[in-house]
Amino acid sequence: MPLNAATAAARLSVAPMMDWTDRHCRYFHRQISRHALLYTEMVTSPALVRGRALHLLDYSPEEHPVALQLGGSDPQELAEAARMGAAAGYDEINLNVGCPSDRVQSGTFGAVLMKTPDLVAACVRAMKAAVDVPVTVKCRIGVDDQDPEHVLPDFIARVRDAGCDYLIIHARKAWLQGLSPKENRDIPPLDYDLVLRMAEQFPDLPMSINGGIETLAVAEDLIARGMTGVMIGRAAYHRPWDVLSEVDARLFGAAPAALSRATVIDAMRPYIEAHLADGGKLHQITRHMLGLFAGQPGARTWRRVLSEQANRPGAGIALLDEALEQMQLSETAAG
Questions:
Q1: Are residues 31 and 155 in the same domain?
Q2: Are residues 67 and 198 in the same domain?
Q3: Sign of dihedral through CA atoms 212, 217, 220, 226?
Q4: pLDDT single digits (tens) 254-283
Q5: Same domain, 308 and 230
Q6: Which residues are catalytic?
Q7: pLDDT band at 119 (very low <50, low <70, confident <90, very high)
């Protein structure tokens, strides 16, 4: 299946992560990679349609390509939320069928929907009828006592037949009882081979694989083995430079950019200043930048200065320079 420009960006995407991938995080990530597909945190369809919380759709035009992830289980409500997302300019609308949290389960959406593939198909069908942008699904390989070898192919066939444009599979089961959301990201074993077999079994449905992927080298290997794309979550957040700084050249064929951590910081300055001028707080942005120097000399100092001081009243752009200066001093002292 040929990919349009938006889903082609899914060759490498940064996973939707609650409390992490807000608009400030996405703007920061976009300064490191121009091509990776970025996802919002999950936004529930009731919040948009019933609550009219339209501020949840706010983003910066510089974030494109950017996808809106929706949580919900009512087809018509999801269709209306998808319309709102498409009208706001999002490049893709994604349905969450993977989140295992109790709060999500109580709303009858997220990973619990793996148990009702016909309902997921109805949701996809309604969303597809409502918008012209790609409609995608992010799921698990199964939940609880389901046998992924049997339930996953059936699930994929149903969402494909409903019109799903692209599928992202987190290569772990979700245990809806007995494991916390954090434990569900680590304890259930990964089954990359199953997801690779699904990509081979459904060649007409582009697929990304997600879960436990730490490096671009692993991403390249999974693509070479048959995946259309790879989605990276926590590694991209905690080590954004390591994951994103070379992705444009290595996975998208772009010419290497004249990029450094310093140029990324400089690119963030006007954005931060505008945010502060609008009454925002420095830490709302810099909390996403703590991992920029991960693995480098002085990284701990950079994190400490920003995490301890960015939430103080009146903290401003000068704190970035102070963090850089203290980091360099700590490097010198260590050397």
A1: yes
A2: yes
A3: negative
A4: 988 889 999 999 999 999 999 999 999 999
A5: no
A6: 99
A7: very high
User: What pTM does this model have?
Assistant: 0.94
Whether residue 86 contacts residue 131, with contact meaning beta carbons closer than 8 Å, is answered with: yes
CATH number reported for the structural domain that contains residue 288 in this entry: 1.20.120.1460
User: Which of 128, 188, 189, 132 minimizes the C-alpha distance to 160?
Assistant: 128
For 307, the domain range is 261-334
Query: Is residue 225 located within the same domain as residue 274?
Result: no
pLDDT digits (tens, 9 = 90+) for 171-187: 999 888 777 777 767 77
> Which of the two residues, 256 and 7, has the higher pLDDT score?
256
- Mean pLDDT, residues 96-109: 73
Residue 241 sits in the same domain as residue 276: no
Sign of torsion, CA 254 239 40 148?
A: positive
Question: Residue 318 falls within a domain, yes or no?
Answer: yes
